[in-house]
């Protein structure tokens, strides 16, 4: 006698051809109508559907895909793709959050603080919107910040296995190399926010300096991806990605990117104890490659020898003046560019006054951006959020080293160095709402959760 199928969680195998057809036909019709209405929205919808399927099969792979897709924002046909993929993965993450209770319970100290601090910062930014002169601009900025900081809880608790962390790191490197390749293929004219700047590599939503900072932070992680890759042919691909990132850094002619990479090299020598010979060898290879690409593209050397032609110091002066008038709560999130033209006369002679008056730019500094727009309270919360994530990464690296997990400890060390690189670049760029920054920071509590769970298992067996 036939027995009834046991009741249990839904799986893709439970779909009969008839049911699958009943689901796919209206879905295909809806996507077709969406493409006809707006091709960009249609592409985003297709990505969301594909992501939904991937999530059902493997959330770790979907998480890696999400990290890779944060780099495509602004590329032709990719409008809305990062948001759609974030929504799908975020929904799957929330639905399966109870299954990650062990990761949440394990997080203590800086790891738990790293989960909450970005949202406290987000709440304070929302509060400053109440006195912002332009409420619409404040709302737009809040959405950008939300899209960035949401990566922290998703990655910190979703990357609850060493394999998932490795996938996320590899996806970050691949995504950064991909956007550099897009800049090379599409050319500077594809930059969305301004006219091309003297042939420097930039594309979509990535200015030359932001692209340089991204390339520098990803370069730091290449040795970790190399080490986790065993096959010779795949290692050749990893080496190619590293060369592409180095070429991209030179092509952006970004002095801030070079400074970030130099600071990262020093940090690696300090952090990666026991591996300093290997780190020194890696630095030598990077310097040799940098010298070769600079010889082929001397623009970076010429910009390094020149003065500040970017107007960055003028913007910094304006940010300090704005903060002086609004010390506690700032002028309101996203509203520095609204008020900065009023300070032009007070600042005196400027090297590039257009960046303050005609086409005002945001503060090109993480600290000054927080002070001018959200006041000293906002700066304290920024430092708390960033510091908690970095502290979690440092503690994770130490614990993993004590446990004897050399590969994962090395990965944690290089994640820490990559965080140092992108925060250093943030001293010259507006990065509060940068998704790459918060993705790297989110790896800190994720690694700490793994390390603490590993220590608990070791103590239980002792």
In words, what does this structure look like?
- The protein has 2 domains: 26-95; 107-451, no CATH class.
- The protein is built from 20 helices and no strands.
- It has helices at residues 17-37, 39-57, 59-69, 81-95, 101-106, 110-128, 135-149, 151-158, 162-186, 208-228, 232-252, 255-271, 276-296, 299-305, 312-325, 336-339, 344-347, 366-403, 406-425, 435-461.
- The chain starts with 16 loop residues before the first helix and ends with a helix.
- The model is unreliable at 1-24 and 458-462 (pLDDT under 50).
In short:
This protein has helices spanning 17-37, 39-57, 59-69, 81-95, 101-106, 110-128, 135-149, 151-158, 162-186, 208-228, 232-252, 255-271, 276-296, 299-305, 312-325, 336-339, 344-347, 366-403, 406-425, 435-461. It is mostly helical and 462 residues long. It is globular and about 60 Å long.
List the helices and strands and how they pair.
Elements: H1 17-37, H2 39-57, H3 59-69, H4 81-95, H5 101-106, H6 110-128, H7 135-149, H8 151-158, H9 162-186, H10 208-228, H11 232-252, H12 255-271, H13 276-296, H14 299-305, H15 312-325, H16 336-339, H17 344-347, H18 366-403, H19 406-425, H20 435-461
């Amino acid at each position: 006698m036939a027995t009834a199928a046991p009741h249990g969680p839904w799986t893709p195998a439970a779909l009969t051809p008839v049911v699958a057809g009943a689901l796919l036909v209206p879905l295909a019709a809806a996507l077709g109508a969406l493409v006809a209405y707006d091709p960009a929205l249609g592409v985003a919808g297709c990505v969301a559907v594909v992501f939904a399927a991937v999530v059902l099969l493997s959330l770790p792979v979907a998480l890696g895909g999400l990290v890779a897709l944060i780099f495509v924002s602004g590329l032709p046909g990719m409008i809305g793709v990062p948001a759609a993929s974030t929504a799908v993965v975020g929904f799957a993450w929330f639905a399966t959050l109870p299954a990650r209770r062990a990761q949440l319970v394990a997080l203590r100290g800086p790891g738990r603080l790293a989960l909450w601090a970005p949202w406290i910062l987000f709440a304070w930014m929302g509060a400053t919107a109440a006195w912002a002169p332009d409420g619409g601009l404040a709302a737009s900025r809040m959405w950008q910040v939300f899209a960035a900081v949401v990566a922290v809880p998703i990655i910190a608790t979703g990357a609850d296995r060493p394999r998932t962390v490795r996938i996320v790191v590899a996806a970050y490197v691949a995504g950064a190399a991909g956007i550099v390749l897009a800049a090379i293929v599409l050319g500077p004219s594809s930059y969305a926010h301004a006219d091309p700047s003297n042939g420097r590599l930039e594309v979509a939503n990535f200015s030359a300096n932001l692209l340089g900072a991204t390339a520098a932070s990803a370069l730091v992680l290449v040795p970790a991806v190399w080490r986790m890759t065993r096959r010779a042919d795949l290692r050749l691909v990893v080496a190619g990605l590293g060369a592409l990132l180095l070429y991209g850094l030179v092509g952006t002619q970004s002095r801030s990117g070079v400074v970030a990479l130099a600071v990262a090299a020093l940090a690696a020598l300090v952090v990666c104890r026991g591996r300093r010979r290997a780190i020194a060898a890696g630095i030598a290879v990077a310097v040799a490659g940098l010298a070769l690409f600079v010889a082929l593209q001397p623009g970076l050397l010429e910009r390094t020898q020149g003065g500040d032609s970017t107007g960055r110091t003028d913007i910094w002066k304006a940010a300090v003046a704005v903060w002086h008038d609004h010390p506690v709560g700032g002028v309101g999130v996203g509203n520095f560019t609204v008020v900065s033209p009023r300070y032009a006369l007070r600042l005196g002679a400027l090297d590039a006054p257009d960046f303050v008056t005609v086409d005002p730019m945001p503060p090109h500094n993480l600290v000054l951006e927080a002070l001018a727009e959200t006041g000293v309270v906002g700066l304290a919360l920024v430092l708390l959020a960033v510091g908690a994530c970095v502290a979690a990464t440092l503690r994770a690296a130490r614990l993993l080293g004590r446990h004897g997990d050399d590969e994962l400890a090395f990965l944690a060390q290089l994640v820490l160095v990559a965080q140092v690189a992108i925060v250093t670049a943030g001293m010259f760029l507006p990065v509060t709402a940068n998704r790459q920054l918060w993705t790297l920071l989110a790896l800190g509590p994720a690694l700490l959760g793994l390390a603490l769970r590993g220590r608990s298992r070791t103590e239980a067996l002792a």
